[in-house]
Amino acid sequence: MLFRSENVLKSGYGAGLQKSSSESLGQLTINGNGSLTAIGAGKSAGIGGKYGGKGTNITISSGTVIANGGDSGAGIGGGYNGSAYNITVNGGNVIATGGVNGAGIGGGDGSGNGGAASNITIRGGTVTANGGKNAAGIGGGYFQTGSSIKICGGSVKAAAGTNANAFGGGYGKKAFTPTLDDGTARVYLLKIENTNNEPISIDGQNYLPVNHSSYYINDTALYAYLSANEHTVKVGSNKTAAYKYSSKKNKFMKVPSAEDFEFIPPDGTFYDGNPKTAVVRPAAGVNGMGNITVKYYDESNTEVTAPLNIGTYTVRITVEEGTDHLASVGELEIGKFSITKEIPDITLPSAAAITYGEPLASSALTSGWSWVDDTVIPTVSNSGYAAKMSVTDYDRYALSGSISSKGKSFLHI
After folding, report:
1. pTM here?
2. What is the Cα 152 distance to its own chain's centre?
């Protein structure tokens, strides 16, 4: 079925867009560059089966498709007592809403296996599936099972009806974890915020769609389903972030990186005999981080309790698992700082006046200073004589031996 512009199919009896229940009677393929709204009557699907009819061999490839099931009917899939299988979404914007006891995509209400669903595959596009009361978002209707649900791409937002599962069975039946195409590797939701509709890459590959806003303009998150392995995600020009699924928390969590932290070196890094410690804390906007342990390593890569002596220190951290971040794998290097000798604030000395003929020893200098040669008898006309300042705390000050300056002696003749 190829559609253009805006189209509405509303049934008074049966599905809005009805597909024969028989698997042997062809395939329903929907695509176009407009919109199609299909509204089912009571006990019928929006797209798929009527009362007692299955929803099988349905493929949606493009366009905007809105499917609303009547009471007891699925949005896309089976009508009352109708199962659903071989439903595939390759692209487009799909919004499927089940009636009471009907799945968003999958089976309708029924008895026996009448509303069960299997072999539902999403490979691309933006898919929103809302289960009716007691029914799955994607899967079975009321008290019906849902299985063999595969998500290999796209942005998928599935919401369960009351007392049901987002994926899998309706009321009273088990949930089902979607898989990749191979049917064995399970996939889990990674919600990626993308408010500016920027390009997204996952594991180095461009990903489409970039978020869920193609129909719901205020929903700017991407709902990607990925395996439990570690995955790298890059949004626009932001730095690449890594995520891995936590079976303990039942969700994807960010792998901590150095960029997630703010490093504040110690105040005053001149040697003074006291230990120096840095501050490491989550960067602005980073939430859900676990406890941080800060470690210091000297220039020989030996861990020290707290930096004290002159030298350069490397700061590394370990992080415990938090609410949104995993524990760090090993240590993360965050920054470096150095403890150095202090350059003293030197004020040139003043010399007391002496009488002509007296040696420099008779001219007292500012405390801490002395003449280099105090036996010299200065002349009336002179350009000054050398004085020195003694430094005893060599560990603290960046001086070696003594420094010299020219100090004038004022003479009485």
Report:
1. 0.81
2. 21
